[in-house]
Design brief:
This protein is mainly alpha-helical. It folds into 2 domains: about 1-65, no CATH class; about 65-165. Helices cover about 85% and strands about 0% of the residues. It is built from 6 helices and no strands. The protein has helices at about 1-25, 25-45, 50-65, 65-85, 95-125, 130-165. The protein starts with a helix and ends with a helix.
């Protein structure tokens, strides 16, 4: 799984560089447009019969991925971190901040409720209200503490990287 994540990050970084160097669209749009073009080229090459080995590899790779795990442990965490990096806590009255904060809060609550329901389903028994509240508190409290520690450390890394590049 780590190999897949590393490969995706490398490809995304390469596409971002290609966008910045040649296409010059906003980063997210440029990466998406280049990735779409690359995907269409691969589909075209497959239709011509040139990349059948790639198709078999992709099918076996997709069959081996637990998408729930990838979504919950990988993509959602990174998306929430990226969204949180754009929140300026010093401007609490700004409407865009309120909307971004509400979105992050809703996503976080959704993750907590999902983890609670998953814990209930995997335990095989119906928890009491107190047990459910304790599980939710563990998930939410642990997530807040871990997220705060990781967010602060990653913010320092990003800040140091941006300051070191200029």
């Amino acid at each position: 799984m780590l190999d897949i994540a590393a490969a995706c990050l490398v490809i995304t970084a390469l596409l971002a560089w290609l966008n910045q160097r040649f296409v010059r669209l906003p980063t997210t749009i440029g990466v998406m447009v280049i990735a779409l073009g690359l995907s269409l080229a691969i589909v075209g090459l497959d239709a011509l019969g040139w990349v059948h080995m790639l198709r078999r590899y992709e099918q076996s790779l997709i069959g081996a991925i637990d998408f729930s795990d990838v979504l919950m442990q990988g993509m959602l965490s990174l998306l929430l971190f990226a969204g949180a990096m754009h929140v300026d806590l010093g401007a609490l009255k700004d409407l865009a901040l309120v909307i971004a904060g509400e979105s992050l809060f809703n996503d976080g609550v959704g993750v907590g409720v999902f983890a609670l329901l998953l814990g209930v389903l995997t335990s095989g028994s119906t928890p009491t209200a107190g047990e459910a509240a304790m599980l939710l508190l563990q998930e939410a409290g642990g997530g807040l503490a871990f997220g705060l520690a990781l967010g602060l450390s990653m913010a320092r890394v990003v800040r140091a990287t941006l300051q070191g590049g200029h």
